[in-house]
Amino acid sequence: MARLVLKFGGTSVGDIERIRNVARKVKQEVDAGHEVAVVVSAMSGVTNQLVEYCRSISRIYDAREYDAVVASGEQVTSGLLAIALQDLGITARSWQGWQIPILTDDVHAKARIERIDTTEIDRRMKTGEVAVVAGFQGVSHRNRISTLGRGGSDTSAVALAAALGAERCDIYTDVDGVYTTDPRIVAKARKLSRITYEEMLEMASLGAKVLQTRSVEMAMKHRVRVQVLSTFEEAPGSDLPGTLVVDEDEIVEQELVSGIAYSRDEAKVTLVGVADRPGVAARIFGPLADAAINVDMIVQNVSEDGTTTDMTFTVGKADLDRAVQVLEKAKDELSYRRIVADSDVVKISVIGVGMRSHAGVAQRMFKALADRGINIQVISTSEIKVSVLVAEEYTELALRALHTVYGLDQA
Amino acid sequence: MARLVLKFGGTSVGDIERIRNVARKVKQEVDAGHEVAVVVSAMSGVTNQLVEYCRSISRIYDAREYDAVVASGEQVTSGLLAIALQDLGITARSWQGWQIPILTDDVHAKARIERIDTTEIDRRMKTGEVAVVAGFQGVSHRNRISTLGRGGSDTSAVALAAALGAERCDIYTDVDGVYTTDPRIVAKARKLSRITYEEMLEMASLGAKVLQTRSVEMAMKHRVRVQVLSTFEEAPGSDLPGTLVVDEDEIVEQELVSGIAYSRDEAKVTLVGVADRPGVAARIFGPLADAAINVDMIVQNVSEDGTTTDMTFTVGKADLDRAVQVLEKAKDELSYRRIVADSDVVKISVIGVGMRSHAGVAQRMFKALADRGINIQVISTSEIKVSVLVAEEYTELALRALHTVYGLDQA
After folding, report:
1. Residues of B at the annotated binding site?
2. From the annotation, which residues of A make up the binding site for substrate?
3. Which of A233, A340, A361, B159 is the right S-S partner for A270, CB 3.0 to 4.6 Å?
4. Helices B152-164 and B119-126 meet at what angle, rounded to 10?
């Protein structure tokens, strides 16, 4: 007997028949003798509709009211799933964020969970009652409904699992696990049976959409074992059919590289002929930060004559136009010659905790790309990943090449 | 300067443009210097959809979960209207039932309001802030979301008006007031400028759908002046464009009859040849009460031979089949000869507090119907109304005749 938190996303509860299906899955765990809490998202499409309502009323809306509006989607599914569970003979009740309560700060629309009072849920779970918790939402210290930002239900689930001391948090979604890379592009992509928190964090922040970044951070911090698995496929006979996100210690044979992520959501900006003097970076990136534009990769070229330099960096594609505007406004102060913007780029990253102890991982990447005539525009590295920016047209070629080079292809 | 509670129904907040329209109406009252609280229903169609979700999951569902699901509709509109008001430069915030709180009993799906804590709303209204309250919902002593039953937003509004000591509760709807009778049937129907609580209560319970019965009871109990008016029509220059529901004292010239209501939602049952002995009524209506079937009009004919009698009564059309079943099951005990069921009937009622002091009102009704060859099947009376059951095909003829006879036709 274990204590489990199960989380079901929007497509998993997308209509009444699917909610029934979720109830059957929950029942399996209850019948197996487990103590179960369930976290649900809104029915797919509902949150978008509610967000659209808010936006169409006012371009600048009160985030507290936005939260009251959008949190209603999870309220509906929590009630419906409780009814579906009761219909299968299972004792269950719904819990809204304010009922538990899931206390958050008051940064509305992207609140952070501060504390979950599990006293009552814990007591009831011990009696066999299933707690059906509305994901994505909490309550602020001022007694207002708060939400955790898009994808926040993953975070709700992991936080609840941590607070309840659950043995595992199962994130049910529409894919059956975490893959070595995108299987729609690389047919030989393999499902990983295990991946470390650190790797999953890089995968999530580098474009793999399977888990929300903050939920992985929280899982890592509280050492919550997370499984990603499919709501729609059964894997009979398998105890852990999905991908388990766990501590490094739990992975016996660690591959050098676990996965290859890519993000098309990048754009490159180059400032040509910037005066090369102390403080130039601060003068460039200060105005961007003020405009809430996140800068990711940064490269500063060595200047030939020692008086000017080229500064290249990447921003989110959606921010490109604003970034260029901000820099054009600051042209006099920055005294660069011209701006070159390019949105036809892709960031490709190889990720693996094995890199820590093995040299040559980056070199192998550079060579594989060079062999295929792919020019690397920007490089950035961290302890467990190497990212390169290349022309977008090479996405598929680069992914397939790297997948083979690092020995990730399916047998 | 007055303190007002404004209530807007589902069609009034049916889409984003209409919510903006509501915001403009609220702004007019704020600009006029009034302290304003607004009560909103769910967008039209939303509650039905949510009810349908619950029903399609389980025929017998937990009313506490049903309440969590259906209360979400009002949550959405309260947040959206707060945003729309802020967009017009008005300080406003949404309030859910549990935030105020509006405390109810725990008879879920048809809860009764026990207490409204207005401390905080009252304080804020005095500073000019508009309270946008989600109608239809409250919170039980067990901290579960409760709802007040269909049309409950009217009750929320009146209860809030009473608790806030508001000067008036304006119920905005899709008709511009209370009419002497249904203007779709009687072209000469007149809008009433004033009507008493007692009359409104009879009108509401006899089929006029403009206000929920319980809200009128509550208005009467707490002497809340209620105005029914249209969201969609402007009545320039008029201070009170709708119909005011008030205490009898406020109506200077009271008509003998104020209105004529009708209900097609009736069915007639006759038990022929029931043994005429003491306790027969109890034996008939006991099983119906046990089956939660409401019986309305009752007539017991005098038996010719002194040993049997005919018992005629009406039930709601939706309950007719069940009523017949219940009575057939009890046939041995009741020892009647046969059951005659008839659903092609209509109940027509003339209503007026003036009846109390004037004789002959019923007689005039009976004569008017007889003159037109309309046979009266059942009669029931109260202090301020006379109801008759006639064949449904006479509905229009009877309404028009009575409207003229009682001098209600428009000049």
Report:
1. 7-10, 47, 74, 173-174, 179, 184, 209-210
2. 47, 74
3. A340
4. 70
- Say if the Cβ atoms of A75 and B69 lie within 8 Å: yes
Partner B contacted by A47 (CB < 8 A): no
Could you please state the CATH topology (level 3) that the domain comprising B3-250 is classified under.
Carbamate kinase (3.40.1160)
Give the pairing of strands A137-140 and A102-104. parallel
Quick one: pLDDT band at residue B207, thresholds 50, 70, 90?
low
Distance CA B41, CA A318 (A): 38
Task: Tell me the C-alpha distance between A350 and A260, whole Å.
Answer: 5
> Residue A41's beta-bridge partner residues?
none
- Segment holding A391, helix H or strand E: strand A385-391
Q: What is the mean pLDDT of residues B87-100?
A: 98
Which residues of chain B make contact with A72, given a CB cutoff of 8 A?
72-73, 75-76
In this complex, do B68 and A19 lie within 8 Å of one another by their Cβ atoms? no
Q: Where are the alpha helices (DSSP H) in A207-319?
A: 213-222, 280-290
Q: Hey, are the CB atoms on B94 and A56 less than 8 Å from each other?
A: no
Tens digit of pLDDT at every position of chain A (411 positions) = 899 999 999 999 999 999 999 999 999 999 999 999 999 999 999 999 999 999 999 988 999 999 999 999 999 999 999 999 999 999 999 999 999 999 999 999 999 999 999 999 999 999 999 999 999 999 999 999 999 987 799 999 999 999 999 999 999 998 889 999 999 999 999 999 999 999 999 988 776 678 888 999 999 999 999 999 999 887 666 678 999 999 988 887 777 899 999 999 999 999 998 887 778 888 889 899 998 899 999 888 766 677 888 899 999 999 999 999 999 998 888 889 999 999 999 999 999 998 888 888 999 999 999 999 999 999 998 889 999 999 999 999 999 999 999 999 987
d(CA B387, CA B377): 11
Query: What is the CB neighbour count within 10 angstroms for residue A286?
Result: 13
CA distance B84 to chain A (A): 6
Question: What tokens does A271 get?
Answer: 């400032």
Q: Where are the domains of chain A?
A: 3-251
Q: What CATH number does domain A3-251 carry, 3.30.110.40, 3.40.50.2300, 3.40.1160.10, 3.40.50.20?
A: 3.40.1160.10
Q: Do B68 and A98 touch (CB under 8 A)?
A: no
pLDDT tens digits along B177-203: 999 999 999 999 999 999 999 999 998
Residue of A96, A69, A109 whose CA lies nearest to B13: A69
Rounded Cα–Cα distance for residues B47 and B13 (Å): 13
Cβ A409 vs Cβ A183: under 8 Å = no
Tell me how far apart the alpha carbons of residues B365 and B360 are, in angstroms, rounded to a whole number: 9
CA end-to-end span of chain A: 36
Cα separation, A410 vs B141, in Å, equals: 58
Contact A87 B143 (CB under 8 A): no
- Could you say which of B53, B71, B94 has the minimum Cβ distance to residue A16? B53
- Taking the mean position of all CA atoms in its chain, how far away is CA B279? 34
Q: Would you call A143 an interface residue with chain B, using a CB distance cutoff of 8 Å?
A: yes
Who has greater pLDDT, B123 or A238?
B123
Of A90, A100, A116, nearest to A24 by C-alpha is A90
Cβ distance B68 to A75 less than 8 Å, yes or no, reads yes
A75-104 residues touching B, CB cutoff 8 A: 75-76, 78-80, 82-84, 86-87, 93-94, 96, 98-99
**Facing A20 at nearest CB: one of B57, B79, B80:** B57
